[in-house]
Amino acid sequence: HLLQELRMLSVTLDQNMERLLSQGVSAEAKDENGNPALALAAEGGHLDALKLLHKHGANLDAADSIGGTALMNAVINGRADCAETLLEWGAEVDEVIVIPQVSTSAGMLPIEFALSAGNWAMSTLLVEHKTRLTKVTVSGLLELCVDIGDKAFERALQQAAVEVSAREQAELDSALKAQTLKDNTLKTCWE
After folding, report:
1. Is residue 135 within 8 Å of residue 126, measured between CB atoms?
2. Which of 79, 20, 14, 21 has the alpha carbon at shortest distance from 48?
3. Is the pTM of this model over 0.85?
4. DSSP label at 59?
5. pLDDT (tens digit, 9 = 90+) per residue, 77-136?
6. Beta carbons of 61 and 76 less than 8 angstroms apart
7. How does DSSP classify residue 103?
8. Nearest-CA neighbor of 43 among 68, 66, 77, 69?
9. Rg (Cα) of the chain, in Å, rounded?
10. 3-state SS string over 113-155?
């Protein structure tokens, strides 16, 4: 009986949201703390509300009060259905969020939150949507692969680890080259 009442309440809420949006309330509306409706819907796992807000033009990557988007809220709260829907719509898969209580000053990617929670389904979803992998994320994914026994994904990640190492080395080489060029330019200016 309670489940039936909850379903009826959900339908009523969706109808009220549709009515409000149709009457001109912005899909970009934020609560008193600056959190966009789309981010709150994703956080709570309200897929129908997410769809309504998207239908009415809500910005997929609008930031909440601490800089997270709807996708990040879905990932942090384990809302795979919302995360998958947002990714299919084109939400930014590699946003970085800094949460002082949880992360370093450099921030964390959605894949890092999924890994820290041990959420295999969310982690693989993000990888399938081309999240940027780092040595740390590949290492974490490999650990989960071994725990779960997914040999095919493990082999793919081992290849990704080689590619990540090569990319990170190329980025480091490029940064060092740029710094050397800058140093040489400054040296020439002072001579």
Report:
1. no
2. 14
3. no
4. -
5. 999 999 999 999 999 888 777 665 554 446 778 888 888 787 878 888 888 887 777 766
6. no
7. S
8. 77
9. 21
10. HHHHCCCHHHHHHHHHCCCCCCHHHHHHHHHHHHHHCCHHHHH
CB 169 within 8 A of CB 144: no
How do the residues of the chain divide into helix, strand and coil, expressed in percent and rounded to 5? Answer: 65, 0, 30
Instruction: Enter the tokens of residue 114.
Output: 């999924």
> What six digits make up the tokens of 101?
């209580």
Find where tokens 């020439």 sit. Answer: 188
Query: Rounded CA gap, 39 and 112, in Å?
Result: 19
User: 3-state class of 36 per DSSP?
Assistant: strand
Looking at per-residue pLDDT, the higher value among 149 and 65 belongs to 65
Three-class SS state of 71: helix
d(CA 3, CA 164): 47
Instruction: Tell me the CA distances in angstroms from 92 to 38, 112, 184, one per residue in order.
Output: 14, 15, 38
- Can you tell me the distance from the alpha carbon of 102 to that of 124, in angstroms, rounded to the nearest whole number? 22
Name, in order, each residue with C-beta under 8 angstroms of 41's C-beta and a sequence gap of 6 or more: 47, 49, 50, 53, 70, 82
pLDDT over 80 at 60, yes or no? yes
Q: Which amino acid is at 34?
A: G
Backbone φ/ψ region at 26: left (φ over 0), alpha (ψ -120 to 50), beta: beta
